[in-house]
């Protein structure tokens, strides 16, 4: 496999960054990542990505929570079969509250796990190919090119109105 | 939509994290003394017994429960602003969402302390956890007090995770503009966030689900708190209106606390261009709505007490207006309904001093609302020979001072060490080109 160099184009406008992404493949460069200070729908649209899979983790958490909330309330009730105020030992209506709260709690746990897994966080090694300006007001497009085509890629970014930064 | 550029937003917020002046540490030290006072009073109560407070039969729930409900209420507007207004795409919430979420987390922490304080024998708190105790008894999930344990601990966990998730991109901003120890700490806390497209794709999705989950949660939590009372057959408590009444009241008091915190924050940190008068005015407009709902609930309670022809219920409400604690009822009507209705006047809701004074009045009134409900219910219930009065004692006052000090102490530490305005959400409304 030929050696590759990663170069980031830094743009002050998200539309410029999105156009670069759209035209990159035609120019013969491979797209690696886009960095932005805000969630940019323009960039995500240019990448033609499907929706994230976080929701499946959330749903799984919710189902586990709903069942475990009810199960916990029923389990604790049947450990001491004492009828209080004529209410049944297993009273589904009050137990729904434990079921509901556990549904929310475990959905949130699933949501957080899903976000971390799908976004591949924590990722401290990713900081090696990160420009601090991308958390401020710049939009970064990271692309790779074969050795010897670095100049072409830098020119491509500059022609599109950006600034080029080479990562070793 | 803000007129500031992304760079100006970063600069304004990051300037607040500069080394604080000595005056800041004086305030921190004073508040810490307040926390120590509360902790000392609680320690004294643990050694001597719960009897050092004023709670006794018939009023067994005094300031500890009043403060518990008060702080849970304060916690509500943070989630309203961050979750519900996020779902409605209300852009004006962006400058105040972070501070409101932080307020939520700290208020739930303060609220969560009071059941422990009220327990007396705090070392037996594990009786409330779903584990068997030494008699192999388990908690009874038929009890509204157990609903509360589950709801409040869920709310604390969810609001803390929601707060931290929202902070993540901003922690990366601080990391990228700091050096030395601060850089190392923020590098660790930001989990290697770089704002890469796959980060944003999953973050936006996850944040939306967070908001969608927090919305029913916030409504359920104060409903559950209201059922601590409504499921008891006490006149003045046993009513189906309590859940929406408590939720509206909670949001009302929480919005007032948002104004109480935001107005000094705006002045001290020179946030005028970020937390604009329009933002404060929108909070005031929301308070008109919540104030009217609260006023309607007050009126409905009286109407139903009269309409029911229930002599005990009607006596309870007659006494509420004409008995020993009548001043509490008039405080709450005045401060929660009549004074906030001044916000109907545009000049009042756009005047920062007026906003601040009215927010303080609502905080005061909402505390008294809880006093009237909690103490008033049991002080004057069924048999006249069992009626009785209650007054807080010194230990309770010290613990109350401690809880307020703890809240403001934590908030003061937060303001100078973490971004108090969400830079990312502000940038979303900023002009992006250069």
Tell me about this structure.
The complex is a heterodimer of chains A (168) and B (434). Chain A has five helices and four strands, in the order E-H-E-H-H-H-E-H-E. With 168 residues, chain A is α+β, with helices and mostly antiparallel strands. Chain A folds into two domains: 4-50 and 134-167, Alpha-Beta Plaits (2-Layer Sandwich), CATH 3.30.70.120; 54-118, no CATH class. A four-stranded antiparallel sheet of chain A has the order 2-3-1-4, covered by helices on one side. In chain A, helix 3 packs antiparallel against helix 4. The two termini of chain A are 17 Å apart. The model of chain A has no long low-confidence stretch (mean pLDDT 90). Chain B has 434 residues and is mostly helical. Chain B has a single domain (6-16, 55-391, 419-428), classed as Formate dehydrogenase/DMSO reductase fold (Up-down Bundle). Chain B is 71% helix and 0% strand. The mean pLDDT of chain B is 92.
